[in-house]
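Can't paste images in this forum, so I'm doing it all in text. The chain is below; anyone willing to post the predicted structure tokens underneath?
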Amino acid sequence: MTPFVEINPEGMRGNVFKLIGSDWMLIAAGTRDSFNMMTASWGGMGVLWDKRIAICFVRPQRYTYEFVERATHFALSFFSEDYKDALKLCGSKSGRQVDKVAATGLTPVVGETGAIYFAEARLVLECRKIYFQDLDPAHFVDDEIHKNYSKRDYHRMYFGEIIHCLAKP
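Text version of the structure:
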């Protein structure tokens, strides 16, 4: 398997809208012995508080939520199209009932920060959790947003400072 090289986040290849919105990503948190991952297609990257950050969104009923809540770090892993089926499984099955690593064949790696990412990824962001906020429907200016929350299960946003940006050459 091709090793990762650390790059400056400004040197990332690819369009962030495509990376997150259509290629998807795995959000993972926990420890070597106990972690979970979930597929996400909502998120962002940018600069805030003079830090390079990544933002991810997790609903409270998702198993991964418990792990991100307890963690000081999380990782976002981005894959080639070859892994779309694995990402579909990680987005449709709960780690409470399914061993996602066994089901997908993905290889967990413990990063320098302790965050879990996957050897098969093409891009990894190891992030230090620096802020979280629950979405408040009272602040939705566009009424169409409500259609995403028929169960009133509003996401929690996690802002992570990008500590390591790892890419495959």
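The chain has a mean pLDDT of 96. The beta strands are 5-6, 25-30, 35-40, 43-48, 51-58, 73-78, 108-110, 116-118, 123-134, 156-167.
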